[in-house]
Amino acid sequence: MIINRGNLATLFTGFKASFQNGIGQHEPQWPRVATRVPSTTSEEEYGWLGQVPNLREWFGDRVVQNLQQHDYSIKNRKFELTLGVPVDHIEDDKYGVYAPMFEEMGRSAAAHPDQLIWPLLNAGFSTVCYDGQFFFDTDHPVLDENGEVQSVANTDGGAGTPWFLMDVSRPLKPLIHQVRQEGPLVRQDAPTDEPVFNSDEYKYGIKHRRNVGFGFWQFAWGSKQTLNKANYKIARESLMGMKGDHGRPIGVMPRLLVVPPSLEGEALEILNAERDAAGATNVYKGTAELLVVPWLG
To answer: What distance in Å separates the CA atoms of residue 57 and residue 261, rounded to the nearest whole number?
Structure first.
């Protein structure tokens, strides 16, 4: 290829097309459990987490439901991915071999939120959320009907492979995907650009700023107990019985069972089998959708 601005622009157009093709090849799973929240600064405060607003019958003056404030914020992190292409390869018409690399670059960019969300879910047993407790914990503080603090659990502990039952029908899902910037593919291919002048190499890269965090713990149950009907029953009934402050039911309906590949068989038995091993009717058939997540492996 003759190196000039027109040919380099055409080359970049082809690389961008391959990059976009790669983005389309990844089917993200994170939107099932996380809400995408746009960010406008380096850090976002989520102090309002902790109370689900509720209508009340109107007697006298309005009662302002002041949202309980918590010191919880998500600070954006910066990520980059850069590919280098030797100038000699372009001059020698070897640029075609780079199309798969740019496709993989696009696929990697699309998969990046999954790489952040699912490890965070696993880390929920040892990482604090807005109330200062681990996201999956046995002693989340909640006020009862008398205004007294009570401990509420969204886990039954265990030491095995984690699995999760969730209500993902709410505007705010159990996890948060905070997005500050999803930059486009940019280039350094002018003769005076540093990598071209010093290293005889064209560079192409992307820059993203984002992070992930926890939403309402009341919408998710995490367990390391054996995944069977008995423990599924505990998770399901515990979530449906969740109450907000002052004893108000919040109407949690767990409809998504999230498991790693190693628990797919057990999950299918619970959600799809007509009868259990003893021949009894499986009352939990169809009570939730199954989501098998390779990132949890």
So the answer is: 48
Single out the residue of 73, 74, 54 nearest to residue 65, CA to CA. Answer: 54
User: pTM here?
Assistant: 0.87
Separation CA 146–CA 278 (nearest Å): 45
Alpha carbon distances (Å) from 141 to 144, 146, 152: 10, 14, 6
Residue 61: CB atoms within 10 A of its CB come to 6
Spell out the per-residue pLDDT of the chain, length 297, in tens: 788 889 999 999 999 999 999 999 999 999 999 999 999 999 998 866 665 555 555 666 664 444 444 558 899 999 999 999 999 998 888 878 899 999 999 999 999 999 999 999 999 999 999 999 999 999 999 988 888 899 999 999 999 999 999 999 998 999 999 999 999 999 999 999 998 999 999 999 999 999 999 999 999 999 999 999 999 999 999 999 998 877 888 899 999 999 999 999 999 999 999 987 778 899 999 999 999 999 998
Q: 179: closest CA among 80, 16, 44, 4?
A: 44
d(CA 212, CA 45): 13
Q: Quick check: 270 and 282 in contact, CB under 8 A?
A: yes
Sorted by sequence, the CB contacts under 8 Å of residue 55 that are 6+ apart come out as none
Q: How far apart are CA 43 and CA 170, in angstroms?
A: 24
Domain boundaries in the chain? 5-55+64-296
Q: Which of 116, 134, 31 is nearest to 78 (CA)?
A: 116
55 membership: H or E segment, kind and range: none
For residues 44, 127, 212, 32, the Cα torsion angle rounded to the nearest 10 degrees is -130
